[in-house]
Amino acid sequence: MTSVIDLQEVSWRRQQKTILSDINWHVEKGEHWAVLGLNGSGKTSLLNIVTGYSWPTAGHVRVLDQPFGKIDIRTLRKSIGWVSSSLEARIKETEIAEDIVVSGKYASIGLAFEQPAKADYARASYIMGQLQCSHLTGRTYQTCSQGERQKLLIARGLMASPDLLLLDESTSGLDFIAREELLATVQELTKQDDAPTIIFVTHHIEEVLPTFSRTLLLSEGSVFAQGKSREILTGDNLTRFYGMPVNVEWHRERPWVMLQD
Ligand SMILES: Nc1ncnc2c1ncn2[C@@H]1O[C@H](COP(=O)(O)OP(=O)(O)OP(=O)(O)O)[C@@H](O)[C@H]1O
After folding, report:
1. Whose CA is nearest to atom 30 of ligand 1?
2. Which range among 33-42, 43-52, 108-117, 139-148 shows the weakest confidence by mean pLDDT?
3. Which residue's alpha carbon is at the smallest distance from atom 8 of ligand 1?
4. Which residues does a 6 A CB cutoff place in the pocket of ligand 1?
5. How many angstroms separate the CA atoms of 220 and 40, rounded?
6. Which intervals hold domain ABC transporter (predicted)?
7. Whole-number pLDDT of residue 206
8. For 67-100, how does the pLDDT look when each residue is reduced to its tens digit (9 = 90+)?
9. 94 CA to centre of ligand 1 in angstroms
10. Which numeric CATH code is attached to 3-259?
11. By CB neighbour count within 10 A (0-12 exposed, 13-18 middle, 19+ buried), where does 19 fall?
């Protein structure tokens, strides 16, 4: 499998409104992408198409080399981890950290109907170690900070060894230090041999980590630009993208955007 996501001329309409328009997007194995766009530009709608929760009005979708329309999407979803604010909201406050991680094996919320084995907890413990959140073992969700919760949810997303991991605004609500810690964890994660392809959705240019060699800029439901992050995230491109004069400076291999004087 070399093609992870392949969207061809995908459009999605709802209530007489075109929300995604003519999207062509190809993600290869070994690439990690950042997806950037303003509020309402269609980022979450795009992820809904990739996970088969929304069906395109036009166009063709293949994910992990599986053509939609000819496959069982529920089976495919077992190979996709998805961390989003809607998942976060569904986790019970009383849930224990390692149970949250283990539940990722079943794509369930809670473990009321599941019977995890010792090996599942061993794997959860290993992943929590990878994400530097082993110290949360035994803690309830309600006692975890926002940054710790995000790490647990990413660990949960990794539990089923997905080929594709979608991180939708994982840094929202984090302070400067917690955000940098989480970003460092994501950067490290992509260095692992068995790392899934990561699609990292964000509003913030400076979160385009060195590992995100490719970037997709979405604007009003259309692809504004896509390709190598270094070529896409230029002052000229972003000035047109935001409709506001900005400069971009690369620092520690990350782009930082500033308003022009
Ligand atoms: N099911 C739906 N029916 C009607 N409109 C929808 C539906 N889902 C999304 N939209 C609209 O599509 C547009 C794109 O929404 P989407 O949530 O994909 O944007 P986004 O880029 O993820 O936004 P944000 O950054 O604010 O989370 C918005 O105008 C939204 O109101």
Report:
1. 40
2. 108-117
3. 45
4. 14-15, 19, 37, 39-45
5. 7
6. 5-245
7. 97
8. 998 888 988 988 999 998 888 888 999 999 999 9
9. 31
10. 3.40.50.300
11. buried
Q: How much distance in Å is there from the Cα of 164 to the middle of ligand 1?
A: 22
- Ligand 1 centroid – CA 42 distance (Å): 5
Delimit the domains of the chain by residue range. 3-259
Q: Which residues contact 190 (CB under 8 A, 6 or more apart)?
A: 32, 198, 211
pLDDT of residue 110: 74
**Predicted ipTM of the assembly:** 0.97
Mean pLDDT of all residues belonging to the chain: 93
Nearest to 3 by CA among 195, 209, 164: 164
**Ligand 1 atom at minimum distance from 38 CA:** 25
Ligand 1: which of 13, 15, 19 to mutate, most ligand atoms within 8 Å of CB?
Answer: 19
Provide the 8-state DSSP code for 195. Answer: P
The 3-class secondary structure across 7-38, one letter per residue, is EEEEEEEECCEEEEEEEEEEEECCCCEEEEEC
Is the C-alpha dihedral spanning 23, 71, 202, 232 positive or negative? negative
Is 83 in contact with 166 (CB distance < 8 Å)? yes
Q: How far is the CA of 43 from the centre of ligand 1 (A)?
A: 8
